[in-house]
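Example record used in the benchmark description.
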Amino acid sequence: MPLYFVEHKHAAETCPTLKPDMMRMLGMHVTQPSADKFGVRIISDIVHPGEHRMNMVLEAAAQKNVDEFVQPFGMVGSVEVKEVTTCEQVVATGQC
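Model output (structure tokens):
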């Protein structure tokens, strides 16, 4: 199944930590049971402390599933989704 790299950025002024209700909603959203509703598997999610930036590696049958899953982050900043591959897959196929 395809892998997708997600980058979310927001300004300090729109940081979800300033709104406890939004933090709870987003925190509950980035869980596997929530992702399952979109047909997405969370491989990894990380936050860059103090940078107002978050990345996720997700697996889904199609990018539209990922786009729908990460849509709530667009309320506070930008969201970029890219299909990616692993080094192992590049070596196996000989294509970068």
